[in-house]
Write a structure and sequence with these properties.
Helix content: 25-40%
Number of strands: 21
Distance between the termini: 25 Å
Largest sheet: 9 strands, mixed
Shape: globular
Length: 447
């Protein structure tokens, strides 16, 4: 039996890699994509097609220090209604460009803190999106919930808006860790949110946790896990904290000397994953877990799991339209991103045009490599026979096998499989299939 060469893990521990929630990664987006391109791409969507929709709410009452998302702090609700006004105007622009019969199969509200919106604005937002982008039967309607920004009135608004899934940010329940990342949040607040959602029929619950946080230890993370598991979520995500203070200035509040070292990060992630699996969950890809009967587990078993900007998903729509400041749209032709600053985004919308300022036009090679990387990160396996250019993919799997010999196996037909003990190397192995891959400090730690 060939064992994993420790040098491969050490190489990954010292490296950074894209998360591959898009391919090419957003670091490759450029200014050649603008409003005209976006309108042209929208017009080419098939009539009657099913699309996904993402709406970004950038506002937070508190700016958690660990977060690298596009957000802005506000102590009042004053900017919220004007933002929804602009979002409605953007929805009008996008909807007018769509062919007839297009329907929404997935709708996700992210941020920021979507539940910072008061109940009337939450219901208004869901209503205007449904009016302009009609929902397909059985559509999944999801939202990110901050348990410190939820109450009965907001919970009622979510139920009235037919929300079907809620993702709750937990990160860590340990008080010392919470203090170090600027996010106080009690277990009781989280339980109130989970219980309130379920009481209203919103039974699909996701919990998001982080490893690699300051002051985090094996013992403390296990305490957090036991509390999270006691809530019996349908899905759990275990992300590695990405310390990128050059990209997210607020992270300078987190002292690097308080962060676990690379080997400690790996040990934290592996033991946490083991505990979640012990509790009856199925491991999904590199950082997700789901109950065996959950649709994500079913998709993973069937080989139909996908990956997008929200991570792993059961959403197979070819088009994802992003609304709001900084949102990214993915269409068959490529990627289009809105102006990131709220004021700049709003100014462009007021001119009656999409707020697109950058993106990427995909080549045939991009499409092929994107599909290969998606299957590698979803299935830990690449079979050249299922792709449009099997010969090219066989060459790529040979390259990856040579670079990561003890971490993978490769058949005579060129089928590459990452060994179970090397799943933590998947993002680094994926770089072997990436035509744009460069060593860059702009990416997060590979493990």
């Amino acid at each position: 039996m060939t064992h994993l060469d420790p040098k491969l893990t050490n190489r990954a521990l010292a490296s950074r890699a894209p998360r591959y929630t898009s391919y090419p990664p957003a670091t490759q987006f450029g200014p050649s994509i603008g409003p005209d391109t976006m309108l042209d791409w929208l017009s080419q969507i098939e009539p009657g097609a099913k699309i996904s929709l993402y709406a970004h709410i950038p506002f937070c009452r508190r700016l958690c220090w660990f977060c690298a998302c596009r957000t802005q702090g506000t102590s009042t609700e004053a900017p919220l209604a004007p933002y929804i006004d602009a979002l409605e105007a953007e929805a009008d622009i996008i909807a007018a460009a769509l062919p007839p019969g297009v329907m929404t199969s997935h709708l996700h509200l992210g941020g920021g803190t979507p539940t910072f919106l008061p109940p009337d604005l939450l219901m208004r937002l869901y209503g205007l999106l449904e009016e302009r982008f009609p929902r397909a039967p059985g559509a999944e309607i999801s939202i990110e919930v901050d348990p410190t920004e939820i109450d009965d009135a907001r919970l009622d608004a979510l139920a009235a808006s037919s929300v079907t899934r809620a993702s709750l940010g937990v990160q860590d329940f340990e008080p010392a860790v919470q203090a170090a990342i600027g996010r106080p949040q009690s277990f009781e607040q989280t339980k109130f949110a989970v219980d309130g959602l379920r009481k209203r029929g919103i039974n699909a619950i996701n919990l998001d946790l982080l490893y690699g946080l300051p002051h985090q230890t094996q013992a403390s993370l296990q305490r957090t896990l036991e509390m999270a598991l006691s809530l019996s979520p349908d899905r759990m995500a275990l992300y590695g904290y990405a310390h990128v203070p050059w990209a997210s200035k607020r992270q300078v509040m987190i002292r690097e000397e308080d962060l676990p070292r690379a080997q400690e990060r790996l040990a934290l992630s592996q033991r946490a994953a083991e505990r979640i699996v012990e509790a009856g969950y199925t491991a999904i890809g590199i950082d997700h877990f789901a109950k065996p009967g959950d649709t994500m587990s079913i998709a993973a078993n069937a080989g139909t799991l996908h990956r997008n900007f929200q991570g792993y998903t059961t959403d197979g729509a070819q088009t994802l339209i992003g609304l709001g400041a900084s949102s990214i749209s993915r269409l068959p032709q490529g990627y289009a991103q809105n102006a990131p600053a709220t004021a700049a985004w709003k100014a462009r919308i007021e001119k009656g045009r999409p707020a697109t300022i950058r993106g990427h036009i995909d080549t045939e090679d991009d499409h092929l490599r994107a599909a290969v990387i998606e299957r590698l990160l979803c299935d830990f396996r690449v079979d050249p026979a299922i792709f449009s250019d099997p010969a090219l993919v066989r060459g790529l799997t040979a390259k990856a096998a040579a670079a990561w010999d003890s971490a993978v196996s490769r058949s005579d037909e060129g089928v590459l499989s990452i060994k179970p003990e090397a799943h933590h190397l998947a993002r680094m192995i994926a770089m072997e299939f990436d035509a744009y891959a460069i060593s860059s400090d702009r990416h997060s730690a590979a493990i």
